[in-house]
Amino acid sequence: MTKSIYDDSGENERVSSMEKQKKNHNIPYILQLPSHILGEIFRKIQIKTLLQCRFVCKFWHRLLSDPQFTEQLFSGTTCLLLRGCGSDHLATLKNDSLGPNDVALKLLKDTIVLPKEVNIVSSCNGLLCFYKLDSWNPPYGRLYISNPITGESLALPTPPDENVISFPCGFGFSPMSGAYKLVRFRGTSQWRYEPYREVLVLTVGSGAWRSIGNFWYDLDYMLYGVCVSGFLHWIDWSRALICAFDLEREVFQELPLPPSWDLEGRNNISRLDFSVLQGCLSVTVTVDSQRKMSIWVMKEHGVKESWSLELTIGGVIVPRPCQQFFRNGRISLKFGDGPVLLKFGDGQVLLFNGGKLLAHASGKGLVDVEFDGIYLISAHVHIPSFVSPKHIIGG
């Protein structure tokens, strides 16, 4: 078929291409970059500034609102939620050390705003669960889930007895179902202490707490459970075991304490603390009489033989931070946050102790990590995210 000399489709295509090039010429080059290159640029920007970048254009907003993209974006980012007297900060941690015998940590500060009178329960996947004390009389306050970067918060239903801070609780994520859950325990007697407890579970988004029965563990040693591998963990000191709650099946599992319990002697150990180190459950064993701290990591969750002694730090005294809470009309005390925050690939460990951040390297010992000279009340590891709390209420 002979093409007509009046067929101008080819000319139209050339004109359309020229107009497209002219249009793109007027768009800044950075807005035309592919997502993987943008990701490398975004990694070099402070988080609060990055939050503002969502409003540059529709493409950036869509990209920075994508949970999968932001998860990859922040995968190599280490952040600390630092609470000072009257100020809260999200600090991005840069490890510039050259090896295990060198200490070179830098903190890049972003100021965030959290309500006053807040007890942080847990940080999970960029979301913060906290309890806000509103009154010294019932109902005392409420539980919230918040994204401290975006400033969005979601109020959660109050447990049946309203007295949220009387007994241990925990916030975690089940990878199998993708559900976020809160677990809370309450005593069967209002007037006297009993280890016999009722277990309450709230699946975020369901709107109501569920009772799943009673149990006999004594979890008074620590207030907030630590979430690892889809389990919340507490210590039963009286039975010398770790009580792990499976968030998916909603059943309890007993895990062994690290060998220090037997090596040091139960009566010599002054405190035990949980943390999450490189994705594994870690227990820090402190012996005040020897000014020694041993850091153990369970490399394979639930396997006794996988306990590994990662580090022993000498010459350190860990005070006994406590949480205040109500029980039967009086104030009681309970252990607060553990001293060990992070462990890096080069062997360095970051501690929070006595209102200060300390870094430990094998050749340097303990070194102060300066943060604007602020006396810190608490420090929590926090994975940044732009996910809204409202996006998880479909569970």
UniProtKB/TrEMBL annotation:
Lineage: Eukaryota, Viridiplantae, Streptophyta, Embryophyta, Tracheophyta
Residue ranges of domain F-box in the record: 27-73
Residues in coiled coil: none
Positions of the UniProt region annotated as Disordered: 1-20
Pfam family, one: F-box
Biased composition, class Basic and acidic residues, residue ranges: 11-20
UniProt xrefs under NCBIfam families: F_box_assoc_1
Lineage top rank: taxon: Eukaryota
SMART domains: FBOX
Name of this chain's protein: F-box domain-containing protein
